[in-house]
Amino acid sequence: MVIDAGYGNNTTFLLELEKRKLKYLGGCAKNRKVITQTEANKLQEIRLDKLAESLPVEAFTPIQLNLDKPKSVWVATKEVEISCLEGKRSIAIVMNASTFSQATDIDYFITNVSQSIATPEWIVTTYAQRNWVEVFYREAKGWLGLSEYQVRDKRSLLRHFILVFCAYTFILWHTLTGGLRRRWASKPLNSFTEALVAFRTAMSFRFFDWLNLNRDVFAAYKASLGFIWA
Hints:
By secondary structure, this protein is of the alpha+beta class. Helices cover 46% and strands 19% of the residues. Helix 6 (154-177) packs across helix 8 (192-213).
């Protein structure tokens, strides 16, 4: 689970994730205190920004992120203890320069994923994908009615979510494969919204075509709900 920086700073939220035995990766505030081991094998409580400043240049690994615009970052990972949590967690310090003094953008992350998996590259590439989660929720809520349900029991909620997820997957798959443009549009469909409009246009035509042939069926259906379709 990739969580927002605000949630990563929320101790109660982290404790709840730990209680549920969920794996997470989230942002931390620079003033969060962690317990780390010094070179003299002594435990030291220190703020994350002070820890980052104390690390040598060799501790940071350069990583190339292949986003819309390629981006280079320098990442250092370290196992630390946090007073409210049992055991050790991996933290990552991500900078936009090779040294702390030159960096103008520094992010701090925490994860309970095992250190064998939570490498510097894994941390930054995984967190970079968080934006697509936000895109999904924005499109699913704004265009497919993810949050516009009027049911309360668990079974009905699950059915609603499944229908939305299926619709989203169907439209996204057609967008990526060019299916919607090939079948239902004569212009490029460069976004989910454009693809959805093409899909709705196609569906509205098919409903209108069916309605012309089955007006009595539709009227009977409305009558069963107590309405008069006339």
